[in-house]
């Protein structure tokens, strides 16, 4: 269960056919898993570039964990470094602009975490 105390994190991973996320909360020195999320990518989504698949992973996991995250400050961890810069991109168009709007509704900080230390 999610406590009112402790930092909330979402760890994201995206591969060619699937993306997944873990909602966790740090309590003291321990990180407790609250929930998991996973989904397969459809044929069109598999053709996206890596950055677009990473943004999609964040958008879908935020939608899935919305009841836990709405109105809270939290960190979103990713192994895709450029995602940190992309979230603040001012001149996005089309699908990417819509996705970035969805991400910007939340009070989150994108953090990079090297893949070998991940999930």
From TrEMBL:
SUPFAM superfamilies: DNA/RNA polymerases. Keywords: Endonuclease, Hydrolase, Nuclease, Nucleotidyltransferase, RNA-directed DNA polymerase, Transferase. This is Retrovirus-related Pol poly from transposon. It comes from the Eukaryota. GO terms for molecular function: endonuclease activity; hydrolase activity; RNA-directed DNA polymerase activity. Residues 21-106 form the Reverse transcriptase RNase H-like domain. It comes from Paramuricea clavata. InterPro entries: DNA/RNA_pol_sf (IPR043502), Retrovirus_Pol_polyprotein (IPR050951), RT_RNaseH (IPR041373). Signal peptide: none annotated. The keyword Nuclease applies.
């Amino acid at each position: 269960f999610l406590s009112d105390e402790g930092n909330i994190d979402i760890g994201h991973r995206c591969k060619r056919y699937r993306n997944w996320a873990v909602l966790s909360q740090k309590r003291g020195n321990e990180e407790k898993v609250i929930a998991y999320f996973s989904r397969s990518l459809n044929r069109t989504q598999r053709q996206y570039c890596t950055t677009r698949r990473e943004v999609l992973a964040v958008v879908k996991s935020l939608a899935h964990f919305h009841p836990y995250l709405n109105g809270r400050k939290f960190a979103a961890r990713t192994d895709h470094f450029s995602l940190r810069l992309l979230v603040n991109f001012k001149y996005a168009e089309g699908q990417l602009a819509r996705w970035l709007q969805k991400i910007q509704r939340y009070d989150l900080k994108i953090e990079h975490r090297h893949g070998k230390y991940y999930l």
